[in-house]
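Key result, reporting period 2: structure in, sequence out.
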């Protein structure tokens, strides 16, 4: 089941992962920018063109921070997904979309646990007081980047898995 790894194949995998991190980071930053622009206090007196320009500017600003954090948080889960997909010759875009969602969810949960641990522990979070809007925002930070990252990896490297 193990496959030899040559330089061309490793370069394709690394390029696919790097490109998927950039796309997922841009998806995260666009969700955050859109949320900031559409909030009642953000860009309230602006025209539609002003809101679109503000969202584009905020997306690029947030991307500067989102892409490196995406790289750090997704490296281990993505490596595990790639180490599963390559020897098993998984080439389905749906499988890579599910793997991207899984990697994104694992990274989100790890970040949540890390931030909870650094803020004084779980005792501050119990009983849970999460609203439906916070849950929806968390889903918006997981689903689009996971799908975008997984499908980008499939387009660059996953459709050649096992070659």
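The corresponding designed sequence is given below.
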């Amino acid at each position: 089941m193990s496959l030899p790894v040559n330089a061309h194949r490793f370069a394709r995998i690394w390029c696919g992962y790097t490109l998927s991190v950039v796309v997922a980071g841009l998806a995260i930053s666009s969700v955050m920018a859109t949320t900031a622009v559409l909030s009642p206090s953000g860009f309230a007196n602006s025209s539609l063109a002003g809101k679109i320009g503000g969202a584009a500017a905020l997306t690029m600003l947030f991307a500067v921070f989102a892409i490196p954090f995406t790289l750090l948080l997704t490296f281990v889960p993505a490596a595990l997904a790639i180490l599963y997909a390559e020897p098993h010759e998984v080439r389905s875009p749906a499988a890579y979309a599910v793997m991207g969602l899984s990697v994104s969810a694992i990274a989100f949960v790890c970040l949540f646990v890390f931030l909870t641990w650094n803020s004084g522990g779980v005792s501050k979070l119990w009983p849970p007081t999460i609203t439906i809007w916070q849950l929806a925002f968390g889903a918006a930070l997981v689903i689009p980047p996971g799908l975008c990252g997984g499908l980008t990896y499939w387009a660059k490297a996953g459709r050649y898995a096992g070659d």
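The chain has one domain: 7-160. DSSP finds four helices and no strands in the chain. This case is discussed further under Risks and Mitigation.
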